[in-house]
Amino acid sequence: SCDKHAHEYHNLSDISVLCSYVHLQKLELPHNKIQDLSCVSHMPYLVMLDASYNEISNFFEFQPPKNLKEVNFSHNRMTKMRDLSAYASLTKLDLDYNSFSEISGLEQCCRLTHLSLAHNKISRISGLGGLPLTHLCLRGNHLEKIEGLEHLKSLQVLDLSQNRITSLSGLENLHLLGSLNLEKNLVSSVNMYDPPMDVVAARDHITHLVYQLMQPQVLYESTLPSTDFPYPMLVLTGPRGCGKRELTHRLCQEFNEYFAYGICHTTRGPYFGEENGLDYHFVSEEVFQSMIHTGKLIQTIQYGGHSYGLTRDAVENVAREGLACCVHMELEGVVSLKKSYFEPRYILLIPTQVEKYIGHLKARGLYTQAQMDAAVSRIELYANTNRQRPGFFDNVIPCDDWEDAYKTLRQAVKEYLLLEEQEEGENNNRASPDNTSTGVYVFVYSHHH
Ligand SMILES: Nc1ncnc2c1ncn2[C@@H]1O[C@H](COP(=O)(O)OP(=O)(O)OP(=O)(O)O)[C@@H](O)[C@H]1O
Description:
Layout lengths: L3 H4 L18 E3 L19 E3 L19 E3 L19 E3 L19 E3 L18 E3 L19 E3 L19 E3 L15 H17 L19 E5 L6 H11 L4 E3 L2 E3 L13 E3 L2 H9 L3 E7 L2 E6 H9 L3 E6 L1 H7 L7 E6 L3 H11 L4 H20 L6 E4 L3 H16 L15 H4 L13
Parallel strand pairs: 1-2, 2-3, 3-4, 4-5, 5-6, 6-7, 7-8, 9-15, 9-16, 10-15, 11-12, 16-17
Antiparallel strand pairs: 11-14, 13-14
Helix pairs in contact: 2-6
The protein binds adenosine-5'-triphosphate.
């Protein structure tokens, strides 16, 4: 009760008389001066215990009632958790406003879905292992980073507000998360003008996830999160103008029984001859922002002063045809897509001869010198990522010569698809890639004609 006068009557400190109430299933004792709960040892049928707002310093010092499900010990004086394996039926545990400095002893609480430890003195998240938690509140603690959550696959609501968290990394893979509170942390103290790629990706991922979950939506089975059968998706990445766009289209043409081109949205204007809805959907910044806020986007990046993003719809339109989505992206897009539940194959197309690469850029006649310099300088970023994060890319293909690159690429794709490769030979009467190179992207192969 919040009623001040009521408190005057809430002065119970000795509750030993309850020892004879052996059949109690529900016991509510909030707002008293209780220090000793040992009488609970005599209540084997207890299901619900509320001893909030008391003076208890002992944590679960009573014989475990076999079916004890909900316990509220908030606003007490507890400092140390202990092994609760004897209390395995616990589903809700409220320990707010105590003085715990560590989370421990919960490993065997295999039914625990709600855990609240707001306003304690916890400095790191630990001991939560693979608990089936759907709700976790650690508001008002001393956390500096997000860790130890990676196995909480059921987590839906997470409150980490009022801590000292500086970075959002550690939130990856929480696919069911629908509510996240990070109010009053120090996240803004990371360099917002040039935050690390992973921070941007994590932040964007959470934004998209949260907005998406706020929308009523139909999910296509084929794109649903599943660890057994991840939705097949193919991503070609590499610096601008490395040929990934053309190779993506060419792949989608040749393997049109398997792949279709995933059409991203962008706020840049169409280049001469570019048609809306073919390479991109061209939209205004305003529309793009509203798409973010209506949860349409799986992933976004800023590149060259414009926004680019892949929508759930783009993937689902392809999935509806029974095909896998094939897209091309800058590295930041890959980092961000890796945070989603999609598990694409990532193929890096890397220029190894800078002069040739510059030649490709110049031949397009689209870029300023500054844009070309920027593109060239990013080759190193890709190469470094590949060196420093083994396995980050599933395949790495040099793209100095697009024809060679395509041969290697289609071979890799055939391996993914478990298609048997016939011996390439003079008598091979299968349609050669050149025959399929019709239409808009014919310029890719121009040196062959
Ligand atoms: N959703 C996305 N996420 C990340 N990167 C993207 C996305 N959509 C497009 N991109 C990438 O953004 C870069 C700029 O694309 P844009 O089409 O404006 O330039 P471009 O000069 O034609 O480059 P390219 O020929 O490599 O596509 C390209 O590298 C492209 O692959």
